[in-house]
Fold Small monomeric GTPase.
Amino acid sequence: MSDSEDEEVADTHLKIVVLGDGGCGKTSTVTRYSQDQFSKSYEPTLGVEFYLKRIVLPGNKNVTLQMCDVGGQTLGGSMFDKYIYGANGFIMLYDITSNQSFENIDSWLTSSKAVEYTTEPHYMLVGNKVDLEHQRVVSKKKHDTYATDNNMGSHFISAKTGDSVDLCFKKLAADILKIKLSKAEVDGAHRVVKAEVKSSKVESKPSVRSRPTKPKSSICLMQ
């Protein structure tokens, strides 16, 4: 066996930082991607939490992603620059049902760009909670315009259902490493989401025929 066959190719390590307001789904997004889990309960992240996931990109490129879930209260804090230092990519996450979380992306973006990096990081604007499309207040046009104006990638996901979460991280990693994903790889990364359909059919009740009331009498029906 040759030395080249015996040697294992070292993984490429990428640091991905997830920023955004509290409650927009940062922790849910990272745990959905790294552990395929989702919790309905909300517990604010204090400081920063780290997650790891190993993926394979085209060309048998092994990549280890270190994902940093930064708490929403850290913006403007003394530790913020230390949490994000060395980042290769940023996911700027907001809630499509909260205009305030979208407006605050500007502050997160400005603060992240105030830190010096060895290599200029990649940014991706990500709208979460597309499972609540009927409650959307941030239009897709507004999202796309902001992403274009700030030279950011663009994506929509649902941490709850898992829709497009895998593709979001995979696309960001591929962009950082200048690797092009094929259409088949993009299509294959989409999660098939089965929506729960609730019947709107009202259960029929036995018909009640009205009877003529007799004089000086009243009937009160209690259900």
